[in-house]
Every structure is written in C-alpha cells, then in structure tokens.
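Quick start: load a record and inspect it. Here is M48 family metalloprotease:
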Amino acid sequence: MILAVWVPLLVPFLAAPAARRLADALPPRPAAWLLAAASTGLALCSAAALSLLTVAGALRLPYVAALGHLVTPFDAVPVAVARPAGCAAAALLALSGLALIRTARRQLGELRTARRRLAPSTGELAVVRDPGPYAYALPGRPGRIVVTTGMLRALEPAEREALFAHERAHLRGRHHLFLAAAELAAHLHPSLRSLRAPLAYALERWADEAAAGAVGDRRLAARAIGRAALAGRTAAHAPRPRAALAAVAGPVPRRVAALLDRRPSTAPLRSRGPGLIAAALLVCLCASAVSAAEAAADLHGGIETAQGEH
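Running the structure step on this input writes:
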C-alpha cells in the first residue's frame, strides 16, 4: 500500500499538462468532456488516496484500533510513515472539504440572488431594465437567458439571435455542471486548478459553434460575440453569478478568430501528436485508478490480518 497510495497523488502533476495539450487539439465539445472527465477522475482518485492514508494513520491510534476490533497492531504501513502521513492527509481532506463547502454555498447564494432579481415569468428570456450591457445563461429549473436592455440596444436584431443561441447552448448543454466538476477537482488537488481556464474556454467555444450553427452564419456569430464583448467593456461590473456562463467571457479575440476560421471545427486530427498525448493521458488515468484500488485492497487485507481473520 505504501507505494501504490502515492501514485494517485503524483500522477495529476503529469496528467494535467497532457490534458491541456490534448484539449487544444480537439474540437470544443470533446475537449470540454475530456477536461471535465479527466479532472474529475484524477481528483476522485487523489481523494481516495488521501482517505486511505487517513484511515491507515488512524488505525495506529489505540482507541481507533479498539473500534476496529484489531487484536494485533496494524502493520500494513510502517508507524514512522502512517502517523505523519495520516495526519497530513486528514488535514488536507478537511481543508479541501471546507473550501469546497464554502465555494458551493457562495455560488448557490449568488444563483438564488440572481433569480430573485428576475421578474416571475415562464419564458426562457428574462430582460432586465439596466443600461449596462451584459447577458448570461442562468442555470436552474428552468434555465433563463438574462439580458439587459443595454445589451439589446448594443446589438442588431440578427446579432441578438446569435447571442441568445449562444446562451441557450450553455443551458441545454448543462455547462454549469462541467464548471462544477472542475471546481471540485481544483479543491481536491492543486495541479488540477490549471484545467479550469481551458475548460471554461472549451465551453464558450462549444456555445460559439452552436450559435453559428443556429443562425447559419459564422461571421454573424463572431460579430455578435465581438460587439457584445466591446459593449460590456464600457459597462460597470455586471452582477453575474460565478456559476453562470456568458458569451463575453474568456479570450474573446481568440474565440472570434476561431469562428472566422473556415476550416470545420470537427476536422479529423491528422497528426500523431494528439494520439500519443491521448495514450499518455489514458495511461495516467488507469495508473491512478488501479493504484488507488490496489492500495484499498492492501489496506483491507491489513485490517483483516490485524483482526486475526487470516
């Protein structure tokens, strides 16, 4: 166990850069799924490893050993390693849990506050009387597209439809859940924080492509996003919840350039580089999962031995 349990804690430092490189080579939708799945899987394996270290350290305490009905000392992990590693793992888990709870409460509070500001309506579109130009997709049941009168005045009718299609894509794709997964991963392992920005960009590009398809004009979608971003720069800070996505978020010039690129976003990958990176990332994920499972099996076996069942 003592060797296997460290693999899920170290692998993310190698897997996170590989995931970023691979996401850059993929179309937006699979890139978003890749980043969300990789960060969640690596984070869960890391949390499992910390939990196993915590249990191994706790079993060295007399009252915990008594609760576990251990008749002989638990020796699956040397005492010189079990106690300090267990204390450190328990502290990291506690700090991560508290930070995650605090972030979740803050974001849920922001979403509730944003919903209370809207007039009761059964429609998808919520127009707010505000000269400040901003718009965003507010998740919930039902999801709402929030747009101000200032933003409506800043765009032409066709551009408004492109903007609405962009925000509608966020709601239909449940993109806020992708961001929640990235936030969870970032709190569980420090190296996974670097995946939040690429994931947010992939989600915006996903919605950009959906908007371009909905209006049937990539240049129109690019113009709408660019004009909305320029209008938003002159406004005061928009009261947008952090869990809500907006068309003007992220590196807008890069997104506009991608929309104006006439090459299809779903073009097949011809280089061997992305394939090699994908293979390396898959190896990292499998190694992390297998090592966590092996460490759990070793811990279980050590407990059974200490209980005199073998």
